[in-house]
Amino acid sequence: MDKIVVFETYYNPIEANIVKSRLMDADIQCFLSDENTITLNPLYTQALGGVKLHLFEKDVDLARSILQETIPPLETPEEEEKGEFVCPKCGSHDVGYVQATKKRFGILTMLVSILLLVYPFSVKKVHHCFNCLHEYK
Ligand SMILES: [Zn+2]
């Protein structure tokens, strides 16, 4: 029988759940304890020592490496469709429909995606002129 250890302690039940689902996705058996008490009464957090994430001792290393993995972008870079559009500013045909280079994501989108551990899903796309760098919709 494998030993079950406390892998990590969280003061935020949401964060604990995010980590838990990531590990479950990777087929690592784990569970949270004291989660309900803390969700119902956050004041008990200190007393109970936070939400504890338990898993098998043998899975600890694997779990750590999974959580350290950087998340690859969901989208592969799209092919630039050159020549289909004309830049309204300089008249060049060297225009691609690409992710906006200016202000790619709002700071809020960034924060939310970091929190949810996902790549920002709403990527703004614009027509980008490779000649004069003008961007338009
Ligand atoms: Zn242009």
- Major sheet summary line: 3 strands, antiparallel
What small molecules accompany the polymer chains?
zinc ion
CA-atom Rg in angstroms: 23 Å
User: How confident is the prediction overall: mean pLDDT?
Assistant: 78
Strand content: 15-25%
The count of β-strands is: 6
Distance between the termini: 60 Å
Helix content: 25-40%
Could you give the order of strands across the largest sheet?
1-3-2
Could you name the key traits of this structure?
single chain; 137 residues; alpha+beta; 3-stranded antiparallel β-sheet; 5 helices; 6 strands; 31% helix; 21% strand; binds zinc ion
Describe the fold and architecture.
- Pfam families: DUF2007.
- Residues 12-69 form the DUF2007 domain.
- Keywords: Membrane, Transmembrane, Transmembrane helix.
- This protein has helices at residues 13-25, 35-40, 44-48, 60-68, 107-116, and strands at residues 4-10, 30-33, 51-56, 95-99, 125-129, 135-136.
- The chain is of the alpha+beta class and 137 residues long.
- 31% of the residues lie in helices and 21% in strands.
- The protein has a three-stranded antiparallel β-sheet.
- The protein folds into two domains: 4-68; 95-136, no CATH class.
- β5 and β6 form a beta hairpin.
- The mean pLDDT is 78.
- It binds zinc ion (ZN).
